[in-house]
């Protein structure tokens, strides 16, 4: 059986401080681990199903989805396999091959792939470049107006918080533009829903997607797709032949343990978004202290409004040039001190997050960077 | 917080014998429960990702997928979210809106939904009706030939073992017809892959899908999509903008714990398919003894070649007529004796499976049915 050893042990999160922004919001609380255990077997969530996953009463998926809709203040929600599958479903339901959509210049690659899989053309609202890389509402407006002059725009997509710079966009202003111009807006909250409070109605979004494994303390793959009731008939259209089943959902989506973890984590998630201000404060402190080390510059909007931080780090790049391990030195120095999550080989810049860490842990991380710099000071 | 109690405890499988065919093949062995624990956190499978889930080396998803391709003897495989998502992806990659495909009359509703979501027309090969409901290769051939006379058929779908009668189709004969007529064949092995040996090359299928949570002892949602290399460029086409990413997979599919359980269960699954003959023997014994009770008739092909059994049960329907609990009596009598998995209220017919049960457990189940009948004998 030794050839079947695929290395299925994971000590990374248990034994280290993990700075990977992708993983900071997906750590399970104890109650979600229990739910995972309870619903580990295939189709176990379907014990009491009467034909629709979203209507199951035991466990109470039905009520949970209502609560989730309240939580983000939107008319109705479904779970999907992730943010990307949610985006794909909306585009698929609203657009035809060859249609054009508008997206922001900081969109995640999965937005592009969802569009490409639907054979859609993309018009992009550029960000304002180095160093803040901001998506300005006025640029979005201008781009959308220009686009509409040329062709019909079937959908607008906006990344609420992007994965490159952790910039929080002014979704409300952009939603208002979209509404005026008659274009439905899909807000990608993969990096925000479950971390910070979201009010879809207040923002004015037609659709909203979230990522359970990324920002809602859930085991993957699972995502959230919310919409206003005006879109229900389009996106949740039922099958003619199997009248209970929603076509775009292929009948059922999250038929497994991930939905149990999303439900079990929900009280924890609701509580933590209330403490979002503290998280932002910690992030700002972290940035300030890191920048003090010299030749470390935070990119993106300042001060930070999200925990994802991108640093330009000429200081580490300079060390790498003469280091026998080259670009690997930083990863290795950090790893030795039980800090992980920065990509191997990267020294010119990196992304990181101290989301949900204690102040002690954050100080330890800052001091570690300081020590590494000191060690290589000429 | 009491309003957040969604009832996330599941004792059904621990405390009862579960006859639900949907769930018999999805029970996790201990090693898969461990893997679930290790990879419970969101995106934990992505620790060492360099841009493609299927190429991750730690855990060794890359080698696992090769081993999985060998296991079903096909050129290459990807994991998807389930059998339905695999069928949708193949149809989406091969067909255009309005195209026509052929499916068998025992196809699962998810085959219909995958086609409907792709806006495809369906031509159906009928089964031969009561009591065996067989899909005959000659009927499939005739239907396909007639269809081709009228329109172009872009894809043929065949259910290897269907979920209504548990009939095993003659996939090899039908594949040979499809090959002769130049129509690619997608074989839906949701109920067979992971239970019985599958040799896609020997059968001659172009595509094959499996269901991890249904028949491969995995936690859901996860499925397997296999294909011959001739289809790689069509189905696994890469994005123009994000050149590593496969469009139809939206970049990555199983970014979560389910893939870890599929990998951990693989040795167990490989071993158990070798014992498939024993399972069939147990099923035949179960059917024989149940039919002896009188007015219990196995539908579908005889003798059974799969563990899913559908019984017509006039005996229980007669009892229900005069029972104060009506159709619920059977469910309740069984439940009292710790047997579950037969739908509440059903007495005219039911589906069940004794897959992976011991002979003692099977005898207990047979005796329980016998006792219930005796209790209500006039
Ligand atoms: C902004 C953004 N959108 C979408 C995604 C993809 O999320 P999911 O895995 O739920 O599809 C990510 C993941 O990194 C992201 O950062
Ligand atoms: C024959 C058949 N195909 C497909 C499916 C769906 O499988 P999945 O949940 O993996 O999409 C089922 C599930 O019951 C089935 O019986």
Q: What descriptive keywords fit this protein?
A:
homodimer, 378 residues, alpha/beta, Aspartate Aminotransferase, domain 1, Aspartate Aminotransferase, domain 2, 2 domains, 7-stranded mixed sheet, 3-stranded antiparallel sheet, 16 helices, globular, binds pyridoxal-5'-phosphate, protein biosynthesis (chains A, B), PyrdxlP-dep_Trfase_small (chains A, B)
CA radius of gyration of chain A: 22 Å
> Structural class, judged by helices and strands of chain A?
alpha/beta
Q: Give the tally of structural domains of chain A.
A: 2
Q: Name the assembly state.
A: homodimer
Number of helices of chain A: 16
Total strand count of chain A, please?
Answer: 12
Mean pLDDT across the residues of chain A is 97
Q: State the CATH topology of the largest domain in chain A.
A: Aspartate Aminotransferase, domain 2
Cα distance, first to last residue of chain A?
A: 52 Å
Name the shape of chain A in a single word.
globular
Content of β-strand of chain A: 5-15%
Report on this model:
The structure is a homodimer of 378-residue chains. By secondary structure, chain A is an alpha/beta fold. Chain A folds into two domains: 2-19 and 275-375, Aspartate Aminotransferase, domain 1; 30-272, Aspartate Aminotransferase, domain 2 (3-Layer(aba) Sandwich). Helix content of chain A is 42%, strand content 13%. Chain A contains 16 helices and twelve strands. Chain A has helices at residues 12-15, 21-24, 30-38, 61-72, 83-94, 109-117, 137-150, 171-181, 200-203, 212-215, 232-235, 257-274, 276-292, 314-322, 328-336, 359-375, and strands spanning 17-18, 76-80, 100-104, 121-125, 153-159, 185-188, 207-211, 223-227, 297-298, 309-312, 339-340, 349-352. In chain A, strands 2-8-7-6-5-3-4 form a seven-stranded mixed β-sheet, with helices on both faces. A three-stranded antiparallel β-sheet of chain A has the order 9-10-12, with helices on one face. In chain A, helix 4 packs parallel to helix 12 (257-274) and helix 13 (276-292) packs parallel to helix 16. The first copy, chain A, is globular and about 75 Å long. Chain A starts with 11 loop residues before the first helix and ends with a helix. In chain A, 52% of the residues are buried. The model of chain A has no long low-confidence stretch (mean pLDDT 97). At the A-B interface, helix 3, helix 4, helix 5, helix 6 and helix 10 of A face helix 3, helix 4, helix 5, helix 6 and helix 10 of B. The complex binds pyridoxal-5'-phosphate (2 copies). Residues 22, 82-84, 108, 110, 159, 162-163, 188, 190-191, 211, 214, 223 of chain A line the site of one pyridoxal-5'-phosphate.
């Amino acid at each position: 059986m030794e050839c079947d050893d695929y290395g299925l042990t994971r000590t990374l999160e248990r034994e280290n401080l993990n700075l990977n922004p992708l993983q900071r919001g997906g750590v399970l609380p104890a109650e979600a681990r229990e739910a995972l255990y309870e619903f580990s077997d295939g189709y176990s969530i379907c014990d009491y199903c009467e034909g629709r996953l979203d209507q199951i009463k035991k466990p109470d998926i039905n009520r949970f989805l209502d609560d989730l809709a309240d939580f983000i203040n939107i008319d109705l929600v479904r779970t999907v396999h992730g943010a990307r599958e949610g985006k794909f479903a909306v585009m698929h339901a609203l657009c035809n091959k060859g249609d054009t959509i508008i997206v922001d210049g900081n969109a995640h690659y999965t937005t592009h792939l969802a569009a490409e899989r639907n054979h859609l053309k993309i018009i992009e609202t550029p960000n304002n470049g180095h160093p803040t890389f901001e998506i300005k509402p006025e640029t979005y407006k201008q781009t959308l107006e220009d686009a509409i002059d040329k062709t019909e725009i079937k959908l607008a997509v906006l990344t609420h918080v992007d994965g490159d710079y952790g910039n929080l966009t002014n979704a409300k202003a952009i939603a208002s533009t979209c509404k005026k111009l008659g274009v439905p807006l899909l807000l990608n909250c993969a990096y925000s829903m479950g971390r910070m409070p979201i009010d879809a109605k207040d923002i004015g979004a037609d659709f909203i997607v979230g990522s359970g494994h990324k920002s809602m303390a859930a085991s993957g793959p699972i995502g959230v797709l919310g919409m206003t009731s005006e879109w229900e008939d389009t996106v949740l259209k039922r099958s003619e032949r199997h009248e209970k089943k929603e076509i775009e959902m292929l009948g059922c989506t999250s038929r497994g343990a991930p939905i149990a973890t999303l439900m079990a984590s929900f009280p924890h998630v609701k509580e933590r978004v209330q403490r979002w201000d503290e998280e932002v404060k910690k992030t700002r402190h972290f940035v300030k202290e890191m920048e003090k080390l010299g030749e470390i510059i935070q990119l993106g909007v300042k001060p930070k409004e999200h925990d994802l931080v991108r640093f330009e780090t000429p200081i580490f790049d300079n060390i790498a040039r003469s280091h026998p391990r080259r670009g690997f030195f930083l990863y290795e120095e950090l790893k030795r001190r039980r800090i992980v999550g920065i990509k191997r080989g990267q020294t010119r810049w990196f992304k990181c997050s101290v989301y949900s860490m204690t102040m002690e842990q954050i100080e330890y991380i800052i001091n570690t960077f300081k020590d590494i710099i000191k060690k290589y000071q000429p």
